[in-house]
Design goal:
Elements (H helix, E strand, L loop, with lengths): L5 E2 H14 L4 E6 L1 H7 L4 E2 L1 E6 L6 H12 L2 E4 L12 H4 L1 E6 L2 E5 L2 H11 L2 H12 L5 H11 L11 H18 L1
Parallel strand pairs: 2-7, 4-5
Antiparallel strand pairs: 1-3, 2-4, 6-7
């Protein structure tokens, strides 16, 4: 059943509820539209994507209740579901808030940008432009991280490697001309 769009207030309420209802410590990473509405480059998102690492005990039950109470789409999805995990992604993940025993962070913006570039949808590319404009992603680091994960691309058969490489090069080149 389709649910309503989520804004920053709804995502913040989700974080509060998960922190209150989970039975132990863990980390929840915000991904995609969840990051976009919290940082503020989009007003709403259709899906709130999360990665649990480590998974807080009782969080799945809390997610199920929050999904209904807040009328929101919640999915477990992260860049490393679609592209190889970037080295040191946890260290680059920006802290958002702590509720109860759960730390909420933005999943590494470089990883989010590369996953969005790989997917290549218009909204994804607008998100990448917004991340670069807000200095959440540095294009030289993006290019380095792309090269760092390139040897693992064969493990992700859905990736069209030449196309992905070209899109990254275009983003890096375009951002370089804009600065």
């Amino acid at each position: 059943m389709p649910r309503g769009e989520s804004d920053a207030a709804k995502v913040r309420e989700l974080m509060r509820r998960l922190g209150q209802e989970a039975r132990g410590a863990g980390r929840v990473y915000l991904v995609g539209g969840a990051s976009a509405v919290i940082v503020g480059w989009r007003e709403t998102t259709v899906d709130v994507d999360l990665k649990l690492d480590p998974e807080p005990p009782g969080v799945f039950e809390a997610i199920a209740r929050a999904k209904e109470a807040l009328d929101m789409n919640i999915e477990l999805a992260a860049p490393d579901d679609f592209i190889p995990p970037l080295p040191d992604w946890r260290q680059r993940s920006a802290f958002v808030a702590r509720h109860g025993e759960i730390d909420f962070l933005h999943y590494d913006f470089c990883a989010q940008a590369l996953a969005k570039i790989e997917r290549g949808h218009a909204q994804d590319l607008r998100d990448v432009t917004a991340m670069i404009a807000r200095d959440l992603v540095r294009t030289e680091l993006l290019a380095q991280l792309f090269e760092a994960i390139a040897p693992d691309f064969p493990r992700y058969p859905a990736i069209d490697i030449p196309s992905f490489r070209h899109r990254v090069e275009v983003i890096v080149e375009t951002a370089g001309r804009a600065s």
